[in-house]
Amino acid sequence: MRFYKYQGTGNDFVMIDNRSRFFDIQNNQLVKHLCDRRFGIGADGLILLQTKPDQMLEMIYYNSDGNIGSMCGNGGRCFVQFSKDLGLFDQALTFDAPDGEHFAKIEQGLIYLKMINVESINYHENGDIFMNTGSPHHISFVKDLEQFDVVQKGKSIRYSEAYAPAGTNVNFIEIKDQTLWVRTYERGVEEETYSCGTGVTASALAANGKGMKSPIAIKTLGGNLKVAFSDKGNGRFEEIFLIGPAVKVYEGDIELYLQLI
């Protein structure tokens, strides 16, 4: 099987051109194997590129645990670059994703991915925030983010009774020097990732409530991103764009053993 490896600010994905529909989308064991960093290719997730009956491109996203995932912003940007590299569009396209249709364009080497509108923000009594930007995200403002125990604290919130049974992604953020610093514990990966696209989007909208204005510059462990948006008031945001690079790392062929097919 031919595969491609892409990364968006360190969030990495196995990409498969599945327009011929040869890949069994129900084979969770195979997805988990391919994403395994010791026994497979290794990635935070796997993305299938397909076409719908009307020929619109479709993004099917799996978490590294083998299960179908909700929207992935960095994966969406990688999907756009993958589509471009396959010669499927020139400068702009619209594709279908787990949370609906998305518009995207490429300008000066950066992917501009339009995210879904946010209709409401939920505030916890301790000042933490929850919102859905295509995937569910809990956001917590912290101090000294560099030394913060993201995995243990993130895991405790992700599996807390408040978010049972599905759980949530968890973002810890800090504003420093007019830049928003973000670290994320990702549901489905069950670990801190180098970056999370829907997570930095949620973090930017949360930071807007602290006085940061669009576009917001963001730093993650894997690199720099920007989020632009239109604040409509009362927790509503439209014209939200996740902006950043997506890079092809390598491509190759992998032999699939019968027990995995």
Explained architecture:
By secondary structure, the protein is of the alpha+beta class. The protein has 2 domains: 2-98 and 246-260, Roll (Diaminopimelate Epimerase, Chain A, domain 1); 122-244, Diaminopimelate Epimerase, Chain A, domain 1, CATH 3.10.310.10. 16% of the residues lie in helices and 42% in strands. The protein is built from 4 helices and 17 strands. The chain has helices spanning 28-35, 73-85, 150-158, 197-208; strands spanning 2-8, 11-17, 45-51, 57-63, 92-97, 100-107, 110-114, 122-123, 129-132, 136-141, 169-176, 179-186, 191-193, 216-220, 223-233, 236-244, 247-253. It has a 17-stranded mixed sheet that branches. Strand 2, helix 1 and strand 3 form a beta-alpha-beta unit. Helix 2 packs across helix 4 (197-208). The longest helix has 13 residues, at 73-85. The model has no long low-confidence stretch (mean pLDDT 95).
Quick structural summary:
The protein is built from four helices and 17 strands. With 261 residues, the protein is an alpha+beta fold.
CATH homologous superfamily title of the largest domain: Diaminopimelate Epimerase, Chain A, domain 1
Mean pLDDT: 95
CATH class value of the largest domain: Alpha Beta
Q: What portion of residues is helical?
A: 10-25%
What amount of the residues lies in strands?
Answer: 35-45%
Rg (CA only)? 18 Å
Q: In DSSP terms, counting alpha (H) and pi (I) runs of 4 or more, how many helices?
A: 4
Q: What is the number of beta strands?
A: 17
Q: Helix- and strand-based class?
A: alpha+beta
CATH fold call of the largest domain: Diaminopimelate Epimerase, Chain A, domain 1
Distance between the termini: 11 Å
Biggest β-sheet description:
17 strands, mixed
The shape is globular
Uncertain segments: none
